[in-house]
Specification:
175 residues, mainly alpha
Length: 175
């Protein structure tokens, strides 16, 4: 199937591809050094993802779509040898990044049509993440009213607690 991207919207392309099987050949050689495995905790992480999404975004208008994505399988195949706790945090981080990005540039994002508000959102996010990771000098956690930004709390706490002294020193040089 050939789709003319100049005349077809993103939604139109998705409609055309729905229920179709796409085969992309040659990827195994391109990713030859990557592990092709699934983390044994895949079912547990699926449950954890669903619970986390329910707890953070129960009123989010896109919750149904978020839950339809198999982010547990995504995490389990991207990080097949991670411990359950590390798998949970890295999977939640990936989901958080998807949700955060959708706020700004998705056709359904709340800030997609307002560049000035999107810039403010980006700036607030950077400040908040640096603070949550302990990369600023404030000594206390910032508060935010934005639920997407706030949902970084558990992720940031886990990352901050897992720092080694060497990693901590390197992270400080980037702030």
């Amino acid at each position: 199937m050939i789709v003319d991207m100049g005349l077809t919207s993103r939604v139109g392309v998705l409609d055309e591809l729905r229920d179709q099987t796409l085969r992309i050949t040659g990827l195994r050689s391109a990713f030859g050094s990557w592990p092709f495995a699934t983390n044994a905790a895949v079912e547990r992480i699926r449950d954890d993802v669903e619970s986390w999404l329910d707890s953070l975004h129960s009123l989010h208008p896109k919750l149904r779509k978020l839950k339809a994505g198999d982010y547990g399988l995504f995490g389990a195949t991207w990080f097949p040898f991670a411990s359950l706790e590390r798998l949970r945090i890295v999977t939640f981080l990936c989901i958080w990044l998807f949700i955060w990005d959708d706020e700004i540039d998705s056709d359904v994002g709340s800030l997609a049509a307002n560049f000035a508000l999107a810039q403010k959102f980006r700036s607030e996010t950077l400040t908040y993440i640096k603070n949550r990771l302990g990369l600023d000098t404030s000594g206390e956690f910032l508060k935010t009213s934005d639920p997407v930004i706030k949902s970084f709390d558990m992720i940031g706490d886990a990352l901050r607690e897992s720092y080694t002294r060497g990693l901590w020193a390197r992270c400080k040089t980037f702030s």
